[in-house]
Amino acid sequence: SDKSLIVSFGEMLIDFVPTVSGVSLAEAPGFLKAPGGAPANVAIAVSRLGGKASFVGKLGDDEFGHMLADILKQNGVSGDGILFDQGARTALAFVTLRADGEREFMFYRNPSADMLLTPEELNLDLIRSLSSTMLVYPQRLHLDLFDASVDMVDGRESEAKVFHYGSISLIVEPCRSTHLKAMEVAKESGALLSYDPNLRLPLWPSADEARKQILSIWDKADIIKVSDVELEFLTGSNKIDDETAMKLWRPNLTLLLITLGEKGSMYYTKYFHGSVDAFHVNTVDTTGAGDSFVGALLCKIVEDPTILENESKLREVLKFANACGAITTTKKGAIPALPTEAEVLALING
Ligand code: ADP
């Protein structure tokens, strides 16, 4: 099949990263141009690992927009879902690297092209094609596995499709409605919905508004990944434990993941929960670690959705995803640091 199994919806932009840490934007001696945007990073992470991914989003019809579209293409991501806005410019982010290693962002979004994708412009065929081969809701998995009428894909018995979202433009129209429409069509088509809030607090009018909006689309997702910072923000509790995590649990969720940087990741399903340790690596830049983790996880779910019901399989997959995240921190920038499967296996097998 030449159809993408993972469609990632949202923005792609350019991060301008100062060449030195601990200075203000105005004092930076220079900047590196780093392509980014979490949803685009996820699509490229999938592709680098050998999966089939599409990116759906809007870019400016300008030098930066075409550069980003080329990067997607060079990385094997299908560009059938890319649109160019004739008026607005490509989104830009200016990063401040604080002395403590944390990053702050200032965005050019005035508005930028990504915010202007309308529901009418969505490539619905692309999103609907997520259902073209078959299934899958994991709740139905047992039934379908034994249903002779189920299509066989590449000789395998089951295969999931995933729609991944988490645009920073969730807040603004028309992108907000487009987000909701794409989610709805993907869900109707039988895809699993994967959500990463990618919280960038300064973009929201208020913290309350951010919390409200993020949680309002929470219930629609099958798979959710949050960082420790997002866990604290959404629950109001700074204790990272089961009790706090359960505040984010919803009956329709299949998998909730909390990533903890060098402390690894935690997982919750209806059936089991636990944590998987991180790998020790030489970290130079953590940008994109979470996107790399998500890309790896989605790749594995698409190959074998039964990992969602089998704890030992899931733990293997999270070890793989943790390794992907770890490798991504060993090089500057997100996209250049996203690993191939061979690199991941090399780290896992020491
Ligand atoms: P996010 O980028 O969304 O904040 P994390 O920083 O938690 O996400 O990274 C995702 C995963 O990548 C972590 O669960 C972990 O396995 C791995 N990772 C991130 N930072 C490091 C690090 N410094 N050392 C080793 N692994 C890391």
UniProtKB/TrEMBL annotation:
One GO cellular component, as annotated: cytosol
Reaction equations catalysed: D-fructose + ATP = D-fructose 6-phosphate + ADP + H(+)
Entries under Gene3D superfamilies matching the protein: 3.40.1190.20
Keyword Amino-acid biosynthesis among record annotations: no
Tree of life domain: Eukaryota
InterPro entries linked to this entry: Carboh/pur_kinase_PfkB_CS (IPR002173), PfkB_Carbo_kinase (IPR050306), PfkB_dom (IPR011611), Ribo/fructo_kinase (IPR002139), Ribokinase-like (IPR029056)
Function: May play an important role in maintaining the flux of carbon towards starch formation.
PANTHER family linked: FRUCTOKINASE-4-RELATED, HEXOKINASE FAMILY MEMBER
Protein name per UniProt: fructokinase
